[in-house]
TrEMBL record:
It comes from the Bacteria. It comes from Ligilactobacillus animalis. This is Glutamate 5-kinase. Belongs to the glutamate 5-kinase family. ATP binds at K15, S178, D179, T220, G221, G222, M223, M224, T225, K226. It catalyses: L-glutamate + ATP = L-glutamyl 5-phosphate + ADP.
Length: 269
């Protein structure tokens, strides 16, 4: 049943993190970006409507100014994002054009959902692009999104942004690519006996603890924002798959319903 829902998914949001797009040495991972552009174009050519939520602006910006460490200062990160975003888009432009695929850039903040007019305006833009067969490429508008200000936004969280985008466009499926094979019962980078969850039907205390949440024995990592994204998807009765983005061609298998990564889906009645 869930497999059929994956196969039938018409609107798909794909989120890629910096770890998929940038090598640990700070260089752009052209192979991964090429694969990503090839696969997403393949999906569009197969009749799907695809939105890409892509991080990487700060990473590309660091490469452009020759920084090896991400600065702690938020304004410095914002400046790097401003530098890197255009570089990132120019790589996408170049690589997607190899496959004849058109793209558009959308920069959003997390609070777009809270303002009906902003939400509607965003939806209108997405709808036009998707109807024209264009892939919208979304990133957070890092210039205006700042941590813990009177905005309800949190800087640098494209995981939740991808769930917000999924909700705006009413996507059936969110494919979240990360640097890990899925969601485990504890952090596999610390515990070699960690076990992969193949399916999660609700985000409960056990899941939050495994992700390094409050009171966790296992701590660390960016799993919490991924679980929050999954929670949003489940609340809207939509699916999310968390899988390893090392080889973005995995997306072909994921949309076919192959049992890879962790599938977040509401329990079937
Ligand atoms: N229960 C868990 N299952 C899987 N990964 C976990 C878990 N708890 C913590 N992590 C950590 O979360 C990391 C993935 O999050 P993050 O580094 O933010 O990835 P990305 O750059 O793809 O957004 C993993 O590499 C791992 O170190
Ligand atoms: N918007 C910023 C980072 C956002 C973010 O969530 O990064 P990541 O954890 O790599 O998905 C950028 O493009 O660099």
């Amino acid at each position: 049943m869930a497999k059929k829902r994956q196969l039938d998914a018409k609107r798909i949001v794909v989120k890629v993190g910096t770890s998929t797009l940038i090598h640990p040495n700070g260089k752009v991972n052209f192979h991964a970006i090429d694969q990503l552009c090839y696969v997403l174009t393949g999906l569009v050519n197969d009749g799907k409507q695809v939105v890409l939520v892509s991080s990487g602006a700060i990473g590309v910006g660091m490469g452009q100014v020759g920084l090896h460490e991400r600065p702690e200062s938020i304004p410095a990160q914002q400046a790097l994002a401003a530098i890197g975003q255009s570089g990132l888009m120019s790589v996408y432009q170049q690589r997607f054009s190899l496959y004849g695929q058109r793209i558009g850039q959308i920069l959003l903040t997390h609070d777009v959902l809270e303002y009906p007019l902003s939400r509607q305006n965003a939806l209108n833009t997405f709808n036009s692009l998707l109807e024209w067969g264009v892939i919208p490429i979304v990133n957070e508008n890092d210039t205006v999104a700042v941590d813990e200000m009177d905005h309800h936004t949190k800087f640098g969280d494209n995981d939740q942004l991808s769930a917000i985008v999924s909700s705006i466009v009413d996507a059936d499926l969110l494919v979240m690519l990360s640097d890990i094979d899925g969601f485990f019962d504890k952090n596999p980078r610390k515990y070699s006996d960690a076990k992969l969850f193949e399916r999660i039907t609700k985000i409960d205390e056990t899941a939050l603890e495994a992700a390094g949440g409050k009171g966790s024995k296992f701590g660390t990592g960016g799993m919490m924002t991924k679980l929050k994204a999954a929670q949003r998807m489940l609340e809207n009765d939509k699916m999310m798959i968390l899988a390893n983005g090392q080889d973005p061609a995995i997306i072909f298998d994921l949309v076919k319903g192959e049992p890879l990564g962790t599938l977040f889906v509401k329990e079937e009645k």
